[in-house]
Amino acid sequence: MARPLPAALAAVLLGTTALAGCTGGGTAAGGASAPAVTTSVPAPTAQVGTVTWNSALGEPASLDPALSSIESASTVVANMCEGLFTFGPGYKSEPALATSVDHPDPLTYVFHLRKGATFWDGKPVTPEDVVYSVRRVLNPALGSSWVGWAAHMKSIEPTGADRVTLKLKQPDVLVPSFFALPSFHVVEKAFAEKAGKAFGTAKGGVMCTGPYKFGAWTQGQNITLTRNDAWWNTAVKPKVKDLKFTFIADPAAQTAALASGDVDGQFNVPRPAHKQLSGKGHLLYGQSLAPTFLSVLNQKGALGDPAARQALQALIDYKGITGSVYQGTAQPLRALVPPAAWGYAGDVYKTAYDALPEPVQDLGKARKLVAGSPRAKQKIVLAYSRAIDEESRIAASIADTAKQAGMNVELKPLTGEQFGAMFASPAARAGVDLFLSTGYLDFPEPLEYYQYFTTGSFYNFAGYSDKEYDAAVASALGTAGPAARARLIVKAQGIMTRDLPTIPIATQYVNVYYGARLTGLVPRQDYLYTPWATTLGGK
């Protein structure tokens, strides 16, 4: 889903070559050296009592897996709650609470549940728990953004002592990938019903099955998880006993906490921290499925005029952003979905992508478009997260350059809580014309992102609508052949590039830092859904 994620921040790789097996490198946009990509690290050998990990976006609003669509929540929940399947390396589907799934016809999936799997309180996982959990996500009253997968769902029912059957109304090639995501994370029905609205809160807690169980949540200070020694997955033995998550959102304070060792690690480390962290621990980079982009939220204001959107696209300093802001660990984007997310039919996607216009700044074009459009001169409110230094700089650059082109862009910095609300609440988006964020695909399938801009989609915040676009996406959802599906998707991609309901800017690497005493964690985008802490431990 098109959910927010702090940008993978830029730097030269510091002190990691002895730790990491790497690929990549070279020269990136702006002439800076691109970092090496870490593909392996030594496995941990020593037990660790407590690891303190910081959430870069601050304190989560909830630990309910159905509401874990924000990085601050996902990073925690991924170690507690599980779906029917999980992602292995390369996004390969692997069994979790289901040992297998049968697909007897294009509309039917039959899950065979794992015998002996229990919740943290020792109660067995039942088909009723699975069905309850999936239906709970679909309840509009809950407001889960994970509802998007189920546009073509007909029913889900228990069909045996260890079986659950899912029926679709029409074929949908995306559905199987969601079996490993929070849309199918299983919670204990009796516990959730008793907790009611308190489920997922500091008071109500959660009840899942994963390798770490909910310990305590001291609001404003930390969340503690404790290792679940009764986890069904006996092939994996976590080395870390307790995880303590802190909520330091200020980049300078993050830097101080990491440098002093008060915090052991963090995903998406701010750029200013790199110099101070040099030689102290391990700063590693991995491939990212994340684009940084502008989303049009208001089609009735200035941006309702295509000329205004085109002017904005033309005035962005892509070279400066990728070279100066991200220091070479980013590339400009020609389309919303980055090349790293082409999980199949790469030749089809590459040919179409290369045919799109190269993103370059053209102030002359921007001024000309603005001069011919009275609406383009109206005020445009641009919202962004003030907790992400790079995005604050990008927003400021856009506002300054817009002024040179004759446009009036007013900046609206958001707190972590306000930023998260933008993805769930129409009221939070009121008065905002343009939204800068870094999203991410959940798996390398471009269709996943493009489907969310069809008419009526949950994430189609501005109400963008194009019949030809909708038809291409709908056809792709029912097309199993990779090359044929890719051709339909690039058709939709071309329409979106023409209409600009979003304006792509760049794609960066995901990064992680952890202290010198630790090892085992390889930076991958799927840390948001897989129990990454089970790989971490002492040397």
Distance between the termini: 36 Å
CATH architecture of the largest domain: Roll
Q: How would you classify the helix and strand content by structural class? A: alpha+beta
**Major beta-sheet overview:** 7 strands, mixed
Catalogue the unreliable spans. Answer: 1-31
Helix coverage percent = 25-40%
CATH-wise, what's the superfamily of the largest domain? Dipeptide-binding Protein, Domain 3
Which value, in Å, is the CA radius of gyration?
23 Å
**CATH class designation of the largest domain:** Alpha Beta
Mean pLDDT rating: 91
Strand content: 15-25%
The total domain count is 3
The third-level CATH topology of the largest domain is: Dipeptide-binding Protein, domain 3
**Shape assignment:** globular
Strand segment tally: 24
User: Helix tally?
Assistant: 15
Short note summarizing the structure:
By secondary structure, the protein is an alpha+beta fold.
Key descriptive features of the protein:
D-Maltodextrin-Binding Protein, domain 2; Dipeptide-binding Protein, domain 1; Dipeptide-binding Protein, domain 3; 7-stranded mixed beta sheet; 24 strands; 26% helix; globular; transport; Peptide/Ni-bd
Structure write-up:
A hairpin with a 3-residue loop joins strand 11 and strand 12. Helices cover 26% and strands 24% of the residues. The two termini are 36 Å apart. With 539 residues, the protein is α+β, with helices and mostly antiparallel strands. It has helices at residues 71-77, 127-138, 189-195, 251-260, 273-277, 306-315, 318-325, 346-355, 363-371, 389-404, 416-421, 426-429, 446-450, 467-477, 482-499; strands at residues 3-4, 21-24, 36-40, 48-54, 85-87, 93-95, 98-105, 108-113, 153-160, 163-168, 212-218, 222-227, 240-246, 265-267, 281-286, 291-296, 330-332, 379-385, 408-414, 434-440, 502-508, 510-515, 518-519, 537-538. The protein is built from 15 helices and 24 strands.
